[in-house]
Amino acid sequence: MLTTRFTEALGIEHPIVQGGMMWVGRAELAAAVSEAGGLGMITALTQPTPADLVKEIARARTLTDKPFGVNLTILPSINPPPYDEYRRAIVDSGVTIVETAGSNPEPHMELFREHGVRVIHKCTSVRHALKAEAVGVTAVSIDGFECAGHPGEDDVPGLILIPAAADQLTIPFIASGGFADGRGLAAALALGADGINMGSRFMCTVESPIAEAVKERIVAASELDTNLIFRTLRNTARVAKNAISDEVVQILNAGGQFEDVRPLVAGTRGRKVFEEGDLDAGIWTVGQVQGLIHDIPPAGEVVRRIVAQAEEILRRRLTLFGDPAPVG
């Protein structure tokens, strides 16, 4: 077992987290990851209403009795969802682990603290991680530039970001962006992280509730098959390379503004990709790590083989230095 500060703080067996993903983080996937000893996440805003979230949490509990969490991503919006009601649904359902992302977690901390909820805050820089630590989160998930979705505007890859975070944080943290196998977990631990968070890898599993065509595209794709959109708007997002994201990049690079691409990037179009398998229906997120994903196994198998591979790598590396001297 790879016991770390993160596994001890969250009460889980393995230092592997299935991060929250819009339209993907449903009960079957979260429960499968948790049942294998990792930490699965239900994505709150995938559920149309807070009442639906309560039902999804209850459904996950019929599939596993092990800890799982709920992702709550807070983003600026013209018509924001009822975040307060989603928070209340989480605590009233007895969930004790929450992944926050998108904005400063401080406005949510009082309610979560009152109900014994441990918060993992997802961010893309050391400075934001330190702010999250200061407001009392239990752990941080820090995204390198390789990640799917929003990598921030600093363009710092994990090989630099992880040890930089390790040098300054005192709370446990996990590394996100670019992880798909035991080599990545072993590397993250060596760089100072307490575990890993994976999105794209878990998208490409049996329990992932997205169209098979999307999973097959991930398997076939290389690390070169993503686009960075919204760069000129300082709101960078890494998405799959397809006809729509190519067009978005072209329009914005030519001086276009968000209104010029709004119809192309509508969330309803991305949802259609996942639900119907039409790969050019809209933009959809995936990381460069897709170049390391070659199959569509059960989520539990992913967890188990990553841990086994990481343990084997770490033990083999230790033998390079001979037998350790006896302690005491």
UniProtKB/TrEMBL annotation:
GO molecular function: nitronate monooxygenase activity
Source organism, top-level taxon: Bacteria
Principal EC category: oxidoreductase
InterPro entries tied to this protein: Aldolase_TIM, NMO
Enzyme Commission identifier(s): 1.13.12.-
Keyword Ion transport set for record: no
SUPFAM superfamilies: Inosine monophosphate dehydrogenase (IMPDH)
Alphabetic keyword roster: Flavoprotein, FMN, Monooxygenase, Oxidoreductase
Keyword set includes Manganese: no
Name of the protein described by the UniProt record: Nitronate monooxygenase family protein
